[in-house]
Amino acid sequence: MEETILKKLEYQITIPSAHAFLVRYLKAAHADRKIVQLSCFILDGTLQSYNMLNYLPSQIAAAAVFIARKAVGRNAWSPTLLKYTQYREEDVKPVAIAVLAEKSKSSMELRAVNKKYMSSRYGRVAAISLPSDL
Which of 20, 56, 80, 117 is deepest in the core (most CB within 10 A)? Predict the structure, then answer.
């Protein structure tokens, strides 16, 4: 049965990674370049953390968008994001707090991520101070 389904799908399947969710959520957020780059920076900072394995990839992606929107002064969540993520702001906020806590703990360990996002190619978003009060 599995083989039949895969053949029908022409083997075009993907793993539901946090990045796949992030791309979808950024479209729903009508994100500009700065929010896209900042969200990617935040998400990349979670990839090496065992503590983040407690959350679903979709939750981490939603938290990255939430933090990025807040950091640039936009409303943290929107009705469109609610529709496409199926997460309310109250659902995303605890995950965002955990992401920020993890990011502050491991900032020295993530030198490569910080260096990457300090380059002009990535908008120097690593220099943007992330919100501490969510």
Answer: 117
